Amino acid sequence: MLFQTFHPKPGQETRPVSQKVIGLIGGMSWESSAEYYRIVNEGVRDRLGGLRSARCLMWSFDFAEVEALQHAGRWDDATALMIDAARRLERGGADFLLICTNTMHRMAAEVQAAVAIPLLHIADPTAERIRASGHRRVGLLGTAFTMEQDFYKGRLADRHGLEVLIPDEADRATVHRIIYEELVQGRVEAASRQAYREVIARLVERGAEAVILGCTEIMLLVKPEDSAVPLFDTTAIHADAAVDLAIAGFTPSPAAP
Predict the structure, then answer these.
(1) How confident is the chain (257 residues) per 10-residue block, as mean pLDDT?
(2) Active site residues
(3) What class, spelled out in words, does domain 22-122+239-247 have in CATH?
(4) Is 156 exposed, middle or buried (0-12, 13-18, 19+ CB in 10 A)?
(5) CATH class in words for 123-234
(6) What is the pTM for the complete model shown?
(7) Strand 231-233 versus strand 163-165 pairing type
């Protein structure tokens, strides 16, 4: 393996450790995947300096195919697509994987079981960031699948001890509609920003100490000034965690820029 620990003999120089290759399962939608690409490259440059950038591979879906499976409830077929993407990235040389969407973490366990390289689950660094900030009761915004099913909020509660609040039925429908009818199509509307502000305010009224932007497109619409409590952007947090993992133990060559 490329990143096995190297144990030099006495007097032998240590071989530099390369950056790990980040495998990105993207295209769901490409707007947020472009943010992942930007964040991981800016993160590597900022931390390592010079002309450094991330070593990464991306498999990008035609999102129309994935969206059709989601709304038809054909999750087994969607899982098969995700496993195929993960295996392609593994064969291509990725050292670990990210699923660049919250919703498709519904099949994270199946994807992880299908490959030998680690999957960095989006909920884990998000929860760690929230706990480090001292918050325990959080609101969750995302697709209806993410808000209503247990694969995501259950992980936050069971593994990380967070109390998760979701919007009421009408607000969930609004949040979901804006994601699929606008954000994944690159549309950012002022009226929709106001709608999200109102949903967030109602979560705060119910006791939310912070709010998770649990869809990777929401960060295109909602900014810190739109909320009275801290917002936790899963796109940025997930990508930052990938940078941490990619450069852990990295020892650049003295000749490198």
Answers:
(1) 37 60 95 94 94 96 94 96 98 97 96 98 97 97 96 96 98 96 92 97 98 93 96 96 92 56
(2) 101, 215
(3) alpha beta
(4) buried
(5) alpha beta
(6) 0.87
(7) unpaired
